[in-house]
Design brief:
The complex is a heterodimer of chains A (325) and B (468). Chain A has 16 helices and nine strands. Chain A has a five-stranded parallel β-sheet, sandwiched between helices. Chain A is 53% helix and 12% strand. Chain A is elongated, with a radius of gyration of 27 Å. With 468 residues, chain B is an alpha/beta fold. Helix content of chain B is 60%, strand content 9%. Chain B is built from 20 helices and eight strands. In chain B, the strands form two sheets. Chain B has a six-stranded mixed β-sheet with strand order 5-4-3-6-7-8, with helices on both faces. A two-stranded antiparallel ribbon of chain B has the order 1-2. Chain B starts with a helix and ends with a helix. The chains are: A alpha/beta (325), B alpha/beta (468). At the A-B interface, α2, α5, α10 and β9 of A face α2, α3 and α12 of B.
Chain lengths: 325, 468
């Protein structure tokens, strides 16, 4: 049942993902390694924008596997997630083949015989030809191994979770008309959740858990330098320092990595080398999405710049404070 | 190894982290793959398989540190710190230790085991002795009594006073043997530090051991008494803890409610929509459409009396209502003493804590006047009555003590007619309603619910009523 291992070691995971420009720490790599080796789904939780969905995409790219994505929302049901019959196609075929059906039924004398005749043929209309596979079924039936990314599972409702549980435990489904369809290759399943509601315990037990938090200063620097190649060193340092201060404030929406990257790109585009440029104020709205937050960030920026001024006027103490925590 | 893992799972369970059998088995399989050599991999593997909630990550880390890294780690840190404090390099430190060892051999050696281990810097031995003593204490020790705390019992068992006197003797010997100057000073300070650290270590281990057992007696008693304590007697500390409790309560309600709302989403068969959706199939109803029952979000208007007697209750009510803001279409809040003013904007502009404090401070209405419910109600009727709809819940928090002014309870009658619900929360005991200048006998009949609200626990019960 188990195909050859995808990763040989945790370090290999780090290097593969790094090759796709996704910087992860050992914790993330360990969970990914275990997920692929034990063939268990990975449930990734964390605040918005830390790279949960990205992890799924990068995993697929680094292994050269197809990515099948299922975006969850309230009201997502079996039909849209697993499979659907193409009713329109079936009706159309029935209409077109009316004559042929007439021929097949010619031999039948009674109603019973006619029905039996049709029943023998019903495999035609309920076959793979008319089955519309949705992401989950596609992932199961794929000829090669795939990465199945189930995004924002906390937005779905409880019924969907229950049905997903069934699929994830056995990796087979039963279509009444066709029979049981088993997965040829167990897909790598990554579930992401924003924690807007608690998942059911049963689903959690099925999965390995990974909590992605905001990165520490060093890692964030690495990420910025990797994703925004033209960024100046000093700018990156100052941005990271300011961001870490801002994240400690009480904000409506804490800025995440993706917002940091957007901001750094905006600043680089405007050719800003340091944070005490007037334009920086005006670009704060790429970082914060709420007006109240923008105001608080503004205050923090002013405080930070004031401190920087103070440090620069006393150079010997400044060198000590320049460590990134 | 398996036994240790099973024991660890038990420890986790006792501390509130729910670990199931299948998860433990996953942990075994993961360890079989990764091996137990690398400590960070070991930790990550256990964390991925045993911890399934973000909130459990931190307790897991602490328990892991204590369980697997044990006391040995702590001793190492102590040594390093002493080294730093004495200002010695590691070679000098090592030299000093060797010196102590030599002296030890020369001394008549009837020191207790623990003293010897301390002086020889034998970490393993110290750890073993402490663990053994804990074990013995757990097995044969008497249960918690008021006179003997766990610390005193443990120190008795380890005979710490004997250790102390022996160390003293050792110091005496040093001085006698003619060691002098800086060397002597260093050694003496080193001995002092070790004694002090031993004590600290002991205390730490005891508290960890208690946490392992899942006991936190002091904390839980504090919590329960806070629940019953009347709002009027709150100290600053209590207020802070209350804020956390209210925030947690709000989160629980939001979770509960989001589940409730989802269950009631589909209703009866909707003919029109079904036909429309199935036109592509020639009218054959392949897709059934049901009525989507829309649960409309209600609106809340909170009127808070901010005279001294009611201040704390108002504070928490305001905080709670704003914490669960997403469950309501609109929350409007007012404060009053003798006149009424709206404070909704404060909540839109600032975070909850600042807004609550600002609202209760006295910028909006004069807090130093005497309560005049009648006048406040009349003003409310004049200015804000039009804003009440059939979906509004009106919540009044006050003690009803009107200072013998005009009661104006006709306002309440009208409000009850127009709004969906009129609830009155009174921080005074029900027995005092109607006595003296309390107008509760007049106000209460107009309300759908008029309840006592003097402590957190009562607040919890009432909150059930106002949350939709």
């Amino acid at each position: 049942m188990a195909s050859t291992a995808l990763f040989q070691s945790v370090d290999q995971v780090i290097s593969y993902l790094g090759g796709e420009k996704y910087i992860c720490n050992k914790n993330v790599a360990t969970v990914v390694y275990l997920g692929t080796a034990l063939e268990k789904p990975i449930l990734v939780e964390g605040p918005a924008g830390v790279g949960k969905t990205e992890l799924g995409k990068v995993l697929a790219d680094s292994l050269g596997l197809e990515l099948i994505r299922l975006q969850c929302y309230e009201g997502l049901d079996e039909a849209k997630a697993l499979y659907e019959w193409e009713y329109a196609k079936q009706l159309l075929y029935t209409q077109i083949l009316k004559d042929k059906i007439g021929e097949v039924l010619q031999g039948a004398q009674t109603l019973q015989e006619a029905v039996d005749c049709i029943a023998n043929q019903d495999g035609v209309f309920f076959s793979d030809r008319f089955l519309l596979p949705r992401p989950l079924l596609r992932a199961l039936l794929s000829e090669k191994r795939v990465v199945l990314l189930i995004d924002e599972i906390d937005k779905s409702d409880a019924e969907f979770e229950a049905f997903l549980l069934e699929v994830l435990s056995d990796f087979q489904i039963t279509v009444p008309e066709i029979g049981t369809l088993k997965a040829k290759h167990i897909p790598l399943v990554v579930l992401t959740s924003n924690n807007s509601r608690e998942m059911s315990d049963a689903l959690k037990r099925r999965c390995l858990h990974l909590y992605l938090d905001f990165p520490d200063a060093e890692r964030e620097m690495e990420i910025i330098k990797l994703k925004v190649p033209g960024v100046g060193n000093q700018l990156a340092e100052e941005v990271v320092r300011l961001l870490h201060r801002v994240r400690k404030l009480d904000l409506k929406k804490t800025p995440s990595i993706s917002e940091t990257l957007d901001w750094v790109r905006a600043l680089t585009l405007l050719n800003i080398k340091q944070l005490d440029h007037e334009l920086v104020d005006q670009t704060l709205s790429t970082l914060m999405k709420y007006e109240a937050d923008v105001r608080k960030a503004h205050q923090e920026l002013k405080a930070y710049l004031a401190e920087k001024q103070a440090q620069q006027s006393t150079p010997h103490s400044g060198s000590e404070k320049d460590h990134l925590h | 190894m398996e036994d240790r893992l099973v024991e660890f799972s038990t420890v986790l369970r006792r501390n509130g982290i729910r670990v199931s059998l299948s998860e433990s088995m996953d942990a075994f399989r993961a360890l079989a793959l990764l091996g137990i050599a690398d400590p960070s991999l070991f930790r990550n593997a256990l964390r991925a398989t045993l911890v399934k909630r973000a909130s459990d990550v931190k307790p897991f880390d602490e328990l892991f540190d204590f369980f697997f890294l044990g006391i040995g780690q702590t001793l190492d840190a102590i040594d390093r710190r002493i080294m730093d404090e004495l200002g010695l390099t590691s070679e000098q430190f090592q030299e000093m230790l060797e010196q102590i060892q030599r002296l030890l051999k020369e001394m008549e050696g009837d020191l207790s085991d623990l003293s010897k281990a301390l002086l020889q810097n034998n970490r393993g031995e110290i750890e073993r002795l402490l663990r053994d003593a804990m074990q013995q204490e757990a097995e044969t020790g008497t249960p918690d009594s008021f006179r003997h705390t766990p610390y005193t019992r443990m120190s008795a068992r380890l005979q710490l006073d004997r250790v102390q006197s022996e160390i003293e003797r050792f110091r005496g010997m040093l001085q006698m043997l003619g060691e002098s100057g800086e060397n002597l000073q260093n050694v003496l300070r080193y001995l002092d530090e070790r004694m002090r650290d031993l004590n600290r270590l002991l205390r730490e281990i005891i508290s960890q051991e208690q946490r392992k057992k899942g006991l936190e007696p002091r904390d839980s008693s504090q919590r329960s008494s806070l629940g019953d304590k009347s709002f009027a007697f709150y100290t600053e500390d209590d207020i802070r803890r209350m804020n956390e409790a209210v925030a947690r309560l709000a989160q629980r309600f939001k979770n509960r409610l989001s589940v409730r709302r989802k269950k009631a989403v589909r209703g009866r068969f909707n003919v029109k929509e079904t036909l429309r959706k199935n036109l592509q199939y020639g009218g054959v109803p392949f897709n059934i459409r049901l009525d989507r029952r829309k649960k409309t979000k209600p609106q809340v208007m909170v009127l808070c009396d901010i005279s001294d007697s009611v201040l704390n209750a108002s504070r928490f009510m305001l905080q709670f209502v704003y914490s669960v803001q997403d469950l309501y279409a609109k929350v409007r809040s007012f404060v009053f003493v003798a006149e009424i003013g709206e404070v909704t904007r404060l909540f839109e502009e600032h975070d909850i804590q600042t807004a609550v404090e600002a609202a209760l401070k006295g910028d909006v209405v004069d807090v130093f006047s005497h309560s005049n419910f009648g006048r406040a109600f009349e003003q409310f009727h004049r200015n804000f009555f039009a804003a009440i709809t059939s979906k509004t819940t009106v919540l009044i928090i006050g003690d009803g003590r009107n200072n013998y002014n005009r009661p104006s309870d006709w306002v309440l009658r009208e409000v009850r007619h127009k709004a969906k619900q009129l609830i009155w929360l009174n921080p005074e005991s029900r027995m005092t309603w109607g006595i003296g200048d309390s107008e509760m006998t007049r106000y209460a009949p107009h309300c759908h619910f008029a309840e006592e609200c003097r402590s957190i626990n009562q607040l919890y019960k009432i909150v059930d009523m106002i949350v939709p």
